Amino acid sequence: MRKSSVKNNRVNEEVMRELAEIIRKEIKDPRMATLVSVVSCEVAPDLKTAKAYISAMGGENPEEGTLAALNSAKGYIKKLLAKRVNLRNTPDITFIMDSSIAYGVDMISKIESVIAKDNEKKED
What are the 10-residue block averages of pLDDT along the chain, 124 residues in total? Predict the structure, then answer.
């Protein structure tokens, strides 16, 4: 595996920023969750492929609906990305669900419940 270069890091950040903007403003699919964020993006060094890690929260079954909506809009997203980011090749995007944000929210609620129980025991 190649060592990540400064150029590749900048391309990753720029593609991630523009993907987030496109998903937030341009995709109007009812299957999308209410809160969708692009957690990270990895563009291959040859700029042919990219993996976009997506987190979705809110709504009914947010992961499946959001992933289906993004996969059906891949061509449109790629066209908008080509207009916004000046790259030699516009990468083919693969959307991957990332549950790290949901996991973090779940852990915070568990920690808060343990703290609340601990405070109740101290009061007794």
Answer: 76 94 92 89 93 86 88 94 91 90 86 90 77
Kind plus residue range of the DSSP H or E element containing 96? strand 92-97
Map residue 28 onto helix, strand or coil. Answer: coil
Instruction: Give the contacts of 56 (CB within 8 A, at least 6 positions apart).
Output: 32, 33, 35, 36, 37, 62, 63, 65, 66, 67, 97
User: Three-class SS of residue 116?
Assistant: helix
pTM confidence score:
0.78
DSSP 31-94: TS-SEEEEEEEEE-TTSSEEEEEEEEESSSSHHHHHHHHHHHTHHHHHHHHHHHS--SSPPEEE
Contacts of 44 by beta carbon, 8 Å cutoff, 6+ apart: 50, 91
86's tokens: 């000046």
